Amino acid sequence: MSPPSAAVDRLARSASRTGTTIAVAESLTSGLLASAVGAGEDAATWFAGAIVAYQSDVKERVLGVEPGIDPCSAECAEQLAIGVRRVLGADVSVAATGVGGPDPQDGHPPGTVFLGWATAGTAGHVRLALPGAPEEVVAEVVRQAVRLLDRLVEAAQHPLVSTSDPVSAENRTPARR
What we know:
- This is CinA family protein.
- Helices cover 41% and strands 20% of the residues.
- By secondary structure, it is of the alpha/beta class.
- It has one domain (5-174): Maf protein (Alpha-Beta Complex).
- The termini are far apart.
- The model is unreliable at 161-165 (pLDDT under 50).
């Protein structure tokens, strides 16, 4: 899978211009999101890093996800994003978790994905229902996550532009630290 270069280029320019640091946590994408983001120009100056946490106990121990949380849920995605932002000391973060397929998992159909995000005082999520083979689902998750990161970086620099940046208000919760 090749990285979504135009979106990564835009993210790299935005993060470099604003001095915003970025972190990612991922499960179903198994490091592909970090690889795509890390391919951005001057990534060493704005990409704090990534944590790939596939097993639930790793999500709990390393990133502070509450035990028993459904790994394919908005709550898990938000807790992953909050945790990786805290652990890596980044300004903004995105986390990807869900079911890539081809089979359902724990009652969730293939393509059920949650992107969590966190900034200094807010966290939220985006729910995706993606069609396709597992590799197509994962590729689209990476594309959507990079776009979300870019919106987060831009929103952090223009907080008065909109009250619903970067995603709709109903998907926001106060970030726990």
